Fold this protein.
Amino acid sequence: MASRHLAFSFKKSLNYASLRRNVCLMTAIHSRSAVAGLSDSWMRTGQQTGSILYEQQQQQQRRYNTQSNNNQNVPYKIIDYQDIQKWIRRKADSKNARHLIDVREENEVKEGYIPTAVNVPLSQFLTAWTLPSEEFKEKFGFDKPEKKHTLALYCLAGVRSTKAAEYLAGLGYEDLENYVGSWADFIENEEKEEAKRKANK
């Protein structure tokens, strides 16, 4: 009920300060749920208006978040665009021990994704990681990662990937990496690299 009320408030409010307060309140309500256990209503926030608006705001603070989160006691390693490039290059030799996981929804992934990434939407996390290995592979198209494997997570702007990393840490995954800049940062850097290539021609 709280999430529904906040989503309604997001749609109606034209005041930025009020919007930001609503976003922070929603984040506070759900911040601990990722590790302790996810409810169905919480899982749906990845698809609701509040989460998307929050991620759009976070795009303006990606570099700050990346730097500040490195100083926190979090159960994952913060990675950036350069690290993702290494992921892409090394994927071919990983022998399925490394997984770059996009936790956005399927309709978002259709618009583009980081090369070598696989998709497990955050909204399906509650059931996905309880599936037997064969069912997991049939549903998501790749082998279910083992607890000893390295998992790197990303979304649009780092909000859902952070929740996903915290949730997986709660399940016992220890080698976790979080691309806080996520898809928005990847696209921004790709455009810069493309501009450099054109300028050097």
Notes: Residues 131 and 144 are 9 Å apart (CA to CA). The domain at 2-196 is CATH 3.40.250.10 (Oxidized Rhodanese; domain 1). Strands lie at 77-79, 98-102, 118-119, 150-154, 176-179. DSSP finds twelve helices and five strands in the chain.
